[in-house]
Amino acid sequence: MELLKNFSQIVIETPVDKIINQIKQLITSGQLKPGDKLPSERKLCDVLGVGRTHLRDAIKKLEFYGILKTLPQSGTVVAGMGITALEGLISDVLKLEGNDFNSLVETRVILEVNSAVLAAERRTGNDIKEIEKALFAHRAKIEQADHAVEEDLMFHLKIAEASKNSVLKSLMLIITPDILSYFKQHDVCGDGRSNKAVEQHERILEAIKNQDREAVGSEMRGHLVDILDYSKTIQVEQLYNNKIESNNGGMTGT
User: Fold this and answer.
1) CA angle 189, 63, 49 (to 5 degrees)
2) Which of 49, 120, 178, 197 has most Cβ atoms within 10 angstroms of its Cβ?
3) Superfamily for the 88-245 domain
4) Helices in the chain by DSSP H: which ranges?
5) 0.85 exceeded by the pTM?
6) What is the C-alpha separation between 149 and 142, in angstroms, rounded?
7) Is the Cβ–Cβ distance between 193 and 201 less than 8 Å?
């Protein structure tokens, strides 16, 4: 029905989302600057009217993306890295044209493959432990039949950290979260693809352990090929829809 096109999906915000949005607005408006310290948990909970669990989950998520940083005996402060990503160089992936989204995914593939190759070359024993920990968390979430977007991202970020290239990691923080969120919303990782992803992660980790640059590049590229193919599908659909709209707009009544 044509009428259905006029409706849009309703997004229900959780308390955690609302806390994150408030902090985001304070940062992007300049009221919170890098290095500024957040009020205590007790004061924030009182003002926001939420429990500590929701507040801690929001802070943990913002730390995950590099927006906040908790320092021992100093509290939680606004970090420098990640603020650009929060504000949104890619402000809303759902509003991107098909061609833009495809370019976004292509860029991710380039970053990820090179990140994995460098990780195989430069990784330390501690890096291997961190990647293994991220892989375990990802596998555990999948076994619970739950979305594992953040666990998936963490696995890839740990590889980026092992590459010892901070620019690669920063670029991935900007690009990857929006892509994964889009896939989660549209259930792109369904139909057994999540289990397949875990198996691919295991092979990627093994290649990094073995410092096999050629193998890890091939494994990472193969891991991301489904995502790339999906983005191309979106691009084709967008071009088709634009053509239909253009043809409809060019028609005149008689």
Assistant:
1) 100
2) 120
3) GntR ligand-binding domain-like (1.20.120.530)
4) 15-28, 41-48, 52-64, 83-87, 98-122, 125-143, 149-162, 166-185, 193-209, 213-249
5) no
6) 10
7) no
Could you read off the pLDDT of 24-62 as tens digits, one per residue? Answer: 878 777 788 888 999 999 999 999 999 999 999 888 878
C-alpha dist (Å) from residue 123 to 77, 126, 165, 191: 29, 8, 11, 33
- 2-86 to CATH, choices 1.10.10.10, 3.30.250.10, 1.10.357.10, 3.50.50.60: 1.10.10.10
Residue 90 backbone dihedrals phi, psi, to 5 degrees: -115, 85
- Roughly what angle, to the nearest 10 degrees, separates helices 166-185 and 98-122? 130
Which residues contact residue 41 at a Cβ distance below 8 angstroms, ignoring those fewer than 6 apart? 52, 55, 56
Q: How long a stretch of residues is the chain? A: 254
Its sign, for the CA torsion 35, 151, 190, 13, is: negative
Mean pLDDT of the chain: 78
Question: Can you read off the two tokens belonging to residue 141?
Answer: 């979430």
Domain regions of the chain by residue span = 2-86, 88-245
